[in-house]
Amino acid sequence: MATFNFIHFLAITTLIAIVTTITITAIVTTTATTTVITTAAAIKGAYWFDQEIFPASAINSSLFTHIFYAFLIPNYTTYALQISNSESNSLSKFTNSLRTKNPPLKTLISIGGGGSNPNLFAEIVATRAARAAFIQSTISVVRRFGFDGVDLDWEFPKTVEQMSNLGILLREWRRAIDIDSKISGKPPLLLTAAVYFADSFFLSATQRRYPVASINNNLDFVNIMSYDLYGSGNNSTGAPAALFDPKSNINVVSGINLWIRAGLNPNKMVMGLPLYGKKWVLRDSNINGIGAPATGIYGVDGTKAFFQIEEFNKETNATVVYDMDTISMYSYSNTSWIGYDDPFTVTIKVGFAQALGLRGYFFWAVGYDNDIITRQAWKAWILYERH
């Protein structure tokens, strides 16, 4: 506990005083060579999914650099992206809406997502023919609709073999993108991936690690899903995206450190930030801190967008608490309890990301916060950047 408090104290006091010296140059070591990679432009991204209440035209481009269109799913037989008429209309509307934005945005098609079948991707990466069909279709679709890149969100590879095959896919994908660029005369497409909060699935019975060397060599950056760390399946309250956790190694800092120790170049790491929280039903309204007994998560998965949380806090006159141990917020009213991030906790996380020399941050999902948190994150990054 003493070690945790010391690290916690250093992090908070450093961030409040503003990081005065940030070393962003990263050394990436592979089995063959050691390469020094210098700072690239910061990533300030967000995922967007097609929704009536928040069309792509509503995205404030001044707050982001990259927007990820979520999601497309490959065909289960051909393994290629086969675009339906409705998807074609949605993709066209998306790119047309953002193409005229000022400042301009980089746009990427994200493939997969949490609701997709992970076994489909296991089949795709298993053979050269399946990989080739998949890769060529992604390049074709991205070029056809005027996107700047493609993102893979495979949640998640289940075996050591699948992880190895993922590394092969990334290598072949990068090669195909380079060839496409030479033939078309256009800039190479961006190639990114959304990955687990840590480099390994250390909690699983099947131990496996991401192919870090292939990620370093072939991806422009990775979106680390530093959220959904606590939620469904837990009968006590908790922070869904705790920066620290004195009782567990399932937290943002632990995950980022594991990636760095595994050899991932920090300048390729983009920290995930949630624009939502998780709601529980308390067993006893008088016991209402983090770790309080609950009858379970509220509804299907407890998810509440930040703007819904603000409405809840106001309408119920909820008690709002900042938890210093986890760097998170929670609020409660009667037996309703919500854990979440707010502008203050996100500011601390952004400073932490910059202190570690990470490439930037991304949100799931744009439209969940009425630009309140996303605007603060943008300001915080610029603030730390200037000191």
From TrEMBL:
<dbReference type="GO" id="GO:0004568">
    <property type="term" value="F:chitinase activity"/>
</dbReference>
<dbReference type="InterPro" id="IPR050314">
    <property type="entry name" value="Glycosyl_Hydrlase_18"/>
</dbReference>
<keyword id="KW-0812">Transmembrane</keyword>
<dbReference type="GO" id="GO:0005975">
    <property type="term" value="P:carbohydrate metabolic process"/>
</dbReference>
<keyword id="KW-1133">Transmembrane helix</keyword>
<dbReference type="InterPro" id="IPR001223">
    <property type="entry name" value="Glyco_hydro18_cat"/>
</dbReference>
<keyword id="KW-0325">Glycoprotein</keyword>
<dbReference type="InterPro" id="IPR017853">
    <property type="entry name" value="GH"/>
</dbReference>
<dbReference type="GO" id="GO:0006032">
    <property type="term" value="P:chitin catabolic process"/>
</dbReference>
<dbReference type="GO" id="GO:0008061">
    <property type="term" value="F:chitin binding"/>
</dbReference>
<dbReference type="InterPro" id="IPR011583">
    <property type="entry name" value="Chitinase_II/V-like_cat"/>
</dbReference>
<keyword id="KW-0378">Hydrolase</keyword>
<keyword id="KW-0326">Glycosidase</keyword>
<keyword id="KW-0732">Signal</keyword>
<dbReference type="InterPro" id="IPR029070">
    <property type="entry name" value="Chitinase_insertion_sf"/>
</dbReference>
<dbReference type="InterPro" id="IPR001579">
    <property type="entry name" value="Glyco_hydro_18_chit_AS"/>
</dbReference>
<feature type="transmembrane region" description="Helical">
    <location>
        <begin position="6"/>
        <end position="28"/>
    </location>
</feature>
<keyword id="KW-0472">Membrane</keyword>
<dbReference type="GO" id="GO:0005576">
    <property type="term" value="C:extracellular region"/>
</dbReference>
<comment type="similarity">
    <text>Belongs to the glycosyl hydrolase 18 family. Chitinase class V subfamily.</text>
</comment>
<protein>
    <recommendedName>
        <fullName>GH18 domain-containing protein</fullName>
    </recommendedName>
</protein>
<feature type="domain" description="GH18">
    <location>
        <begin position="42"/>
        <end position="384"/>
    </location>
</feature>
<dbReference type="Pfam" id="PF00704">
    <property type="entry name" value="Glyco_hydro_18"/>
</dbReference>
